[in-house]
Design a protein that fits this description.
Distance between the termini: 41 Å
Shape: elongated
Strand content: 15-25%
Number of helices: 22
Largest sheet: 7 strands, antiparallel
Number of domains: 3
Radius of gyration: 31 Å
Oligomer: single chain
């Protein structure tokens, strides 16, 4: 069945201009609030939806400028025989080059045959649908898909309200599961005389295949329906129509009484079963009403892990659970840039899949601080906890996510993809080991921000050399609590050449003691603070309370970092 090859949107809501070539399977749109993710889904629905009436207002025009018409064009490939019919659509068949994205107005051998559908809305708010063809434009001829073809390519949108799709209404997913239809004439007469059960028995025979598919799908997705489903007359219908035949459980309760999450999950599974007849699905805020394990089920039902996608999905999400489950080729970052919107595939460059798995929440934040290691991550978290407790806005509220690069050699492997995807990104690193100079230069030249400790120093050096004496003693006490007095004493004695021990360091804070403690704190074996939780405790309990009494250069560096963090969002 038809799949979308290209989407062009002009002057629709917050989108002034967007030109996007979506993927063959799942397309998960992410980005900051009001970036246009939901508007893209609405544009697809408006252009391809099988509806006779559409409610539009001046607010649907970009900048409320009704003098600039809304125009949405969608190019469809993988056409079935009916859509490639020479008799019906010959003047409108075009060719699509999947490598370059170029569309020619004549079919060409070796390229895919496509149709381009357009909807235009002027100041009169009356949408006009048509097929695109320069050849026919010259002849001033316009036509659109037949209603049957329009109904077949119409995407199925799964929202909070599911009554439409849980009854045999026009365009519902139930009508796309099979060709069978119920003959309701006799049953509807009886329904007027309280004949719900009688019709249910008749419908079971007429809709058996569909009911079996729905029952099986619900079972596969772990949705309890109390046994085989039945098609019964909906007692809440005001008038008898196709929508009067609705899904009911074995106990006679309408399936529309299911929770939001169960309904969305069931409908996604049914859409999968109906993919041969309806291959495009739209889901806004995928996670709505679903627990994490059910989010994974829903993505699985959409074919997220399958090499040959069973359907083409357009979804939006703010859930790290969903991001972690997807590949970089399925995640699209939507951003506004220089008056136009850009939809960029995260992709697989820089081994980004590891970052997706470990830090999915970073892809949902406007700003990302990539730290060399867990110590830096913990320090920033600890400072933030302390400052938030004293009335400042938290980094999470400011839209900042922290990423642990797990070593200087991986800093720009982690940071570069975010920069290339137009995130606001900075790096925080030690200076005792140097990263690749070219990578760092390119990162800064591309708009990334660099923070580092002073020349030759790691974070441990900065802490023990910059904090006042009481804070240094507190650091030593933390280390003793984390690792035990015996281990700390042995490290200090060994690294000082038997000239210092734990007792001596506790008795007097001297420049020599500070240097030895810093060296011990960053040993490869048994380092003092190199976990997020330990460094967070140090940042909260030691560094933050004594920060204003610290070395001015260290304080200035922390202040610069915090200024960047507070400017996020």
């Amino acid at each position: 069945m038809a799949r979308i090859r290209q989407i062009t949107i002009e002057n629709f809501r917050c989108i002034q201009q967007l030109n996007w070539y979506p993927g063959q399977g799942l397309n998960c749109l992410i980005g900051p609030g009001d970036s246009g993710k939901s508007s893209i889904l609405d544009a697809i629905d408006l252009c391809l939806g099988a509806r006779r009436n559409t409610a539009l207002t001046d607010a649907d025009f970009h900048g409320l400028d009704v003098e600039k018409a809304i125009s949405i064009s969608i190019t469809l490939g993988e056409l079935d025989d009916a859509l490639k019919s020479i008799e019906t659509y010959a003047p409108y068949l075009r060719s699509f080059n999947p490598v370059t994205g170029a569309i020619a107005d004549e079919p060409h051998a070796g390229y895919e045959t496509v149709l381009t559908v357009n909807v235009t809305v002027g100041s009169d708010l009356d949408p006009i649908w048509s097929l695109v063809s320069s050849r026919e434009d010259l002849r001033e001829l316009k036509r659109y898909l037949t209603w049957a073809d329009r109904a077949r390519i119409s995407p199925n949108r799964i929202g909070a309200l599911a009554d439409h799709n849980l009854a045999w209404r026009r365009g519902s997913v139930l009508n796309k599961l099979s060709e069978e239809r119920a003959d309701t004439s006799a049953a509807l007469a009886k329904a007027a005389r309280d004949a719900r059960l009688a019709f249910g028995d008749a419908a079971d025979a007429q809709l058996g295949t569909t009911l079996a598919i729905v029952t099986q799908t619900a079972s596969e997705l772990g949705i309890n329906t109390d046994g085989p489903l039945k098609a019964m007359l909906d007692a809440h219908s005001v008038s008898f129509s196709g929508g009067t035949i609705a899904l009911h459980g074995q106990n006679g309760v309408p399936l529309r009484a299911l929770g939001i999450g169960s309904t969305r999950l069931l409908l996604s599974g049914l859409q999968r079963k109906a993919a041969a007849n309806a291959s495009v699905i739209l889901i806004d805020e995928l996670e709505h009403g679903l627990e994490p394990h059910r989010i994974l089920r829903l993505l699985g039902s959409l074919g997220a892990k399958e090499q040959q996608p069973p359907l083409q999905g357009f979804i939006t999400t703010h859930s790290p659970v969903a991001i972690r489950e997807l590949s970089g080729d399925q995640i699209i970052v939507v951003r506004k840039a220089e008056g136009s919107h850009v939809a960029t595939v995260v992709g697989t460059r820089h081994d980004i899949q590891g970052t997706i798995r470990s830090f999915p929440e970073a892809f949902l934040a406007p700003s990302v601080l990539v730290c060399e290691g867990a110590t830096e991550v913990g320090l920033i978290r600890g400072l933030d906890i302390y400052l938030t407790a004293h009335g400042e806005v938290s980094l999470h509220a400011s839209g900042v996510s922290l990423v642990d690069a797990n070593g200087v050699s991986r800093l720009y492997t982690r940071a570069d993809p975010f920069r290339e995807l137009r995130y606001r990104v900075a790096v925080l690193r030690d200076d005792d080991e140097q990263p690749d100079a070219t990578s760092e230069t390119n990162f800064q030249a591309g708009g990334g921000t660099l923070f580092k400790w002073r020349t030759g120093r790691a974070l441990e050096d900065e802490l023990f050399q910059s904090l006042p004496d009481p804070a240094v003693l507190s650091l030593l006490a933390k280390a003793e609590n984390f690792l035990g007095a015996e281990l700390i004493d042995g490290q200090l004695t060994s690294l000082s050449g038997n000239t210092l021990n734990l007792a001596a360091c506790k008795a007097s804070v001297t420049p020599q003691n500070r240097s030895v403690m810093a060296l011990a704190a960053k040993t490869k074996q048994n380092p003092w603070f190199k976990t997020v939780s330990r460094a967070e405790e140090v940042g909260r309990d030691v560094v933050a309370p004594y920060l204003t009494q610290s070395d001015p250069d260290f304080l200035a560096n922390i202040s610069l970092i915090w200024k960047w963090l507070r400017s996020a969002g």
